Amino acid sequence: LEAEPLPSLPHSHSFKHTTPLPRPSPHLRRQLLKRSAAQSPGQPGGPWKEAGPRARAPGCAPQTSNASQNPQAQEPPGRPEAAPAPRAAQPSRPAPRTPGPAPRLSARGAEGRAAGTRRREGARPRWGLAATARRLGREPGPAHRRVTAAARAARAGITAEVLVVTSFDELQRRAPEARGKIVVYNQPYTNYSSTVQYRVQGAVEAAKVGALASLIRSVASFSIYSPHTGVQEYQDGVPKIPTACITVEDAEMMSRMVSRGNRIVIQLKMGARSYPDADSFNTVAEITGSKYPEQVVLVSGHLDSWDVGQGAMDDGGGAFISWEALSLIKDLGLRPKRTLRLVLWTAEEQGGIGAFQYYQLHKANSSNYSLVMESDSGTFLPSGLQFTGSDKARAIMEEVMSLLKPINITQVFRAGEGTDINFWIQAGVPGASLLDDLHKYFSFHHSHGDTMTVMDPKQMNVAAALWAVVSYVVADMEEMLPRS
């Protein structure tokens, strides 16, 4: 609960309105006078009921850091609430009825119906707990804020003054000021690909100018006071300083405070740590092709997620529409000419480790892969398919997508890609990815909000239908997709 400094007001003051307030109708005035006459002198209540003081919201949030602000920089606890204007009593109304939940995809049913062979491919992901945090309200003194740790925990704590910057260029211009401080990046969100560089490289750039730690504004298109975590990198020869993601609201608050000339001191305590690598596995299932079993159309999503949230959106949805695509084709009794293979990747969030292992094992047969597909940008209502490939292959994909005119999803966009299929795309294999509402996706991405509540089963069914149609038709064509 942030309370910014406001101009002090005298004990008695008046407010002037630029436009006159509307007068009640004659009928309403008669009703109010009648009620007032019925009220005995001095009796509380009557037609007006004065609201009590507004209750303060309790502190909330489980997660790490202890941000202690300098007393000079402390935002005040807020001004007293003015008594609300009189309000006529309203008759009680019955609460609206809430419709029941819509039917969802049956994971167990899909698992029972799915056909194919499962293979295990080695990979090695493992990571530590994110930081934990407390929030203790808005009383004067240290203010506790929520962060998610990216790496290099500061267990003993670091206490230092803050330097707020909005870009790497500003950090370089103010490099002499950064030494011995905690750099806070308050970069504006433009799009994910251009903004995520601050999370990935923020600690490295801050360390180069002598900073003790870095805090990065969450890479999110929308925020409701929830930090968004993600992968970050260190560089050989550069000190590995602690770094963490903070909420958009806290980054903007600190930016406003320093713009007013306040000095902010943060005490940063984090509990994140890196563990030794451990074994993990990809999950593979397939429908063997009837005519060209050695040729493959691959559909995929990843099974791992960050330790915040549930990973329902990133990437449970992508994994299960890929599973459902094979399940639907099996239920319909269809068998395409080429092998239709499902791969559920492991360790995608750590840099596509499972996908890299799979590519190393199968790259010698890359000429037999007609199309690789990945869904890792949400499974909301699709707007089309992103595709990377030759012009001839694109023309074929446009014909395939025209089959989806009944559900009005026919567009083929450029730049099909995905962390797990980029290895194949770089080797010249055509690639496709699902495109949907990215603004909604990055509102919940890598945060506590990534739960089953975000998912809409009807929209997932549409995404699964698109995924099944495209994968089956390409796998059943007489020729493979042409390459450049």
UniProtKB/TrEMBL annotation:
GO terms, biological process: proteolysis
Highest taxon of the lineage: Eukaryota
Ranges of residues in domain Peptidase M28: 282-468
Main location: endoplasmic reticulum
Location of the region described as Disordered in the Swiss-Prot/TrEMBL record: 1-126
Chain segments annotated as transmembrane: none
Pfam families the UniProt entry points to: Peptidase_M28
Entry GO CC: endoplasmic reticulum; extracellular region; Golgi apparatus; lysosome
Signal peptide coordinates: none
Subcellular location: Endoplasmic reticulum; Golgi apparatus; Lysosome; Secreted
Annotated Low complexity bias: 71-92, 103-115
Function text: Carboxypeptidase that may play an important role in the hydrolysis of circulating peptides. Catalyzes the hydrolysis of dipeptides with unsubstituted terminals into amino acids. May play a role in the liberation of thyroxine hormone from its thyroglobulin (Tg) precursor.
Family from the record: Belongs to the peptidase M28 family.
Protein's name according to its UniProt entry: Carboxypeptidase Q
Gene giving rise to this polypeptide: CPQ
